[in-house]
Amino acid sequence: MITKLLERGGDLVERAEICVIGSGGGGAVAAAELAAAGRDVVVLEQGHHWTSRDFTQREDEMLPRLFEEAGMRQTSDAAITILQGRNVGGSTVHNLCYAFRTPDPILALWRDEH
Question: Which residues lie closer than 8 Å to 16 by C-beta, 6 or more apart?
């Protein structure tokens, strides 16, 4: 169940054994594993719950929606931009398919050539 406090208004009181902060890849997996082990878990997420109909494919709209500091977060020396997700699903929402198992034909090509 997702409760959106901005739409609901007022205070919300939840009780659980464990509160997982952040619903990204790490938080979601931790929450799922803890729940599967019978623990009472609540996940707290700072960002919004966007659905497929909310995705416009426009960077000027999606960067502020999906990223902390609208995609402009940087290290203290400004050398590296940090694309930190700020939504239900965290960075897994925008990093989906960046890291996937290398297909067998590519592995075979690398093996043959190198």
Answer: 40, 41, 42
Asked if pLDDT for residue 98 goes beyond 80, the answer is no
Q: In this structure, what token pair is assigned to residue 110?
A: 């690398």
Say whether pTM exceeds 0.85. Answer: no
Q: Which residues pair with 48 in a beta bridge?
A: 87
pLDDT score, position 1 = 76
For 87-99, give one letter per residue: b (16+ CB within 10 A) or e: bbbbbbbbeeeee
- Mean pLDDT estimate for the chain: 89
**74: DSSP letter:** B
Coil vs helix vs strand at 75? coil
Phi, psi of 86 (to 5 degrees): -135, 75
Give the separation between CA 32 and CA 46, rounded to whole angstroms.
19
The CA distance from 100 to 86, in Å, is: 22
- Between CA 15 and CA 75 the distance in angstroms is 36
Q: At 64, phi and psi to the nearest 5?
A: -65, -30
